[in-house]
Design brief:
heterodimer, A: 292 residues, mainly alpha, two-stranded antiparallel sheet, B: alpha/beta, Rossmann fold, 6-stranded mixed beta sheet, 4-stranded antiparallel beta sheet
């Protein structure tokens, strides 16, 4: 029994990473109806950027804030330069764009910072959290930050004019333009916010997986799984999905014979396919119904 | 009277297909004008061209300033509210959020709350349902919501695309009564596109008849309503 509860705790801790990544995925999906395959690489680049700042002697929290601003601006810039011209292009063109972006960012990061693994500091420390051996203060901090982010997003979307405008632009662009909303900028803003959220995810993950250009590969797939499980249209779903995927992954690794650590990643992929077949809208997403 | 909206030689295109062939008309400030015509005559296209939602050439002037080259949202921000065909309701949001969205491009928050109250006076059914998802409203209620949302802009000009579409006759009468009231009391200039010619002519003071992308008739609404030839050949009643 103790093994079981321990695995759940550990699952929630890793789930926080996926939840954070899934939030970024959902932000972009809401804005442009596509999954951004380069989301993880963008987060990785932001994390390297913050690491570089710290190498230059900038204190942790300042580096964190500057990185948030840098990522926000970078997200907007990527949208304006690359994806705004593709807005009316077919899905495959966009997918090709995402993959190109993935490759470019990955290589550029490798070029600037090389592929050796680097240590990344944590502001929360890494001692046992409340005396538990399974969950460290860093992991507890990660869970806290993810939940805090979710609450912030909720208030932003429910209670601010900008949030309302962004929701309107995402749900019905034409009607949104007819009430005077600049939908094109709302999409750019969605990119900026997603990039900023992604950078938080990267900064929180880096102390666990270490910093290197390929650090986000697996994480992004889990993030996709979490977003799909929670429903691609719901930030709350993304976070719940993240925790569920984390727990599920740990339990499967412990209890299903033969899975172990090596086969954990296929579990995430199997989960994506199962959800898409059984309940395509996810747990919290709204089913998309079209009148015919 | 000065023309608030002046349309000259308006031509509109869907891809290679030309839908409007040099439309000319003008709306006076404070007037209530109707644009009549059969299916496919180009009524909706005309409204969409005013808001730059379809590729067009020609001159459209609002208060003497050309609208060419402005984006849809910038045209709306000048005070031109467009109630589109199909109502454009934000179905996943509440009735009240829909109304707030109508005012979202206004500068500052002042007056938004009192304007929402005023809309509830115009349309009491919206007040009853203000926390409901707008998608759960009936067709008539959604049309009222669409008109209310447009009014939240405090528009100077309101464009309505077939507000009677799909509504029961009694509800259409109510709605048109409210439009008349808005025109008189709030001094909103209105252009309403309709297939329901009889009702629209009762409501309007000026009418244009459009056929295959051209204006074929214009004049005082009463005169057009009384002209039997026009009624039979263009309006079908």
């Amino acid at each position: 029994m103790e093994l079981f509860t321990n695995q759940i705790l550990a699952g929630i801790a890793t789930g926080a990473i996926y939840a954070c990544m899934a939030l970024a995925v959902v932000m972009i999906y809401q804005a442009i109806d596509h999954l951004n395959f380069a989301q993880g690489e963008m987060a990785m680049f932001s994390t390297f950027f913050s690491w570089q700042l710290m190498q230059w002697g900038v204190p942790y929290w300042w580096a964190f804030l500057i990185t948030l601003a840098f990522s926000f601006a970078g997200g907007i810039l990527i949208e304006r330069l690359l994806f705004k011209p593709l807005a009316k292009a077919p899905i495959l063109t966009n997918v090709a764009g995402f993959i190109a972006l993935f490759a470019i960012i990955n290589s550029v990061a490798g070029l600037i910072w090389d592929f050796t693994i680097k240590q990344y500091p944590t502001p929360f420390g890494s001692s046992p959290f409340l005396g538990s051996q399974l969950i460290s203060t860093h992991q507890a901090g990660m869970i806290g930050v993810t939940l805090g982010l979710l609450v912030l997003l909720y208030f932003f979307f429910q209670f601010t004019r900008m949030g309302l405008a962004m929701r309107a632009a995402a749900s019905l662009p034409e009607s949104a333009r007819l009430v005077g909303i600049n939908t094109s900028w709302m999409i750019a803003l969605g990119w900026g916010m997603a990039a900023a959220i992604g950078s938080i995810a990267g900064i929180l993950i880096a102390p666990v997986v270490f910093l290197e250009p390929n650090m986000m590969g697996g994480v992004l797939i889990y993030g996709f799984a979490a977003a799909v499980l929670g429903g691609l249209t719901s930030p709350l779903g993304a976070v719940v999905g993240g925790f569920l995927v984390g727990v599920f992954e740990n339990l499967a690794g412990t209890y299903i014979p033969g899975v172990g650590n090596e086969l954990k990643l296929p579990i995430a992929l199997a989960l994506i396919i199962t959800v898409l077949v059984v309940k395509p809208a996810g747990l919290f997403g709204r089913p998309i119904v079209k009148r015919v | 009277m000065t023309a608030m909206l002046n349309v000259k030689d308006l031509r509109a295109y869907y891809g290679q297909v030309q839908a409007l062939h040099g439309l000319e008309f003008a709306l006076n400030e404070g007037s209530l004008t109707t644009l009549l015509g059969a299916n496919g005559a180009g009524k909706t296209t005309t409204l969409r061209a005013i808001c730059n939602m379809v590729r067009s050439t020609g001159a459209i002037e609002f208060d003497g300033a050309p609208l060419a080259g402005r984006s849809t949202e910038n045209i709306v921000r000048l005070g031109i509210a467009h109630v589109p065909q199909g109502r454009g309701t934000f179905t996943t949001m509440t009735v009240e959020e829909n109304l707030q969205l109508g005012a979202i491009s206004r500068k500052g928050k002042a007056g938004v709350v009192s304007d929402i109250e005023r809309m509830y006076d115009h349309f009491p059914v919206l007040k009853e349902r203000h926390t409901q998802q707008a998608g759960t409203l009936s067709g008539g209620e959604q049309q009222m919501l669409a008109v209310a949302r447009a009014l939240m802009l405090r528009p100077r000009l309101m464009l309505l695309d077939e507000p009677s579409f799909g509504l029961a006759p009694l509800i259409v009468r109510d709605l048109f009564k409210i439009l008349g009231k808005i025109n008189r009391e709030d001094k909103v200039t209105i252009l309403v596109v309709e297939q329901n010619a009889q009702l629209a002519l009762e409501l309007a003071d000026k009418a244009y008849v459009i056929e295959t992308g051209r204006i074929v008739m214009s004049g005082n609404a009463k005169e057009i309503a009384n002209n039997e030839d026009v009624r039979k050949s263009y309006l079908g009643y």
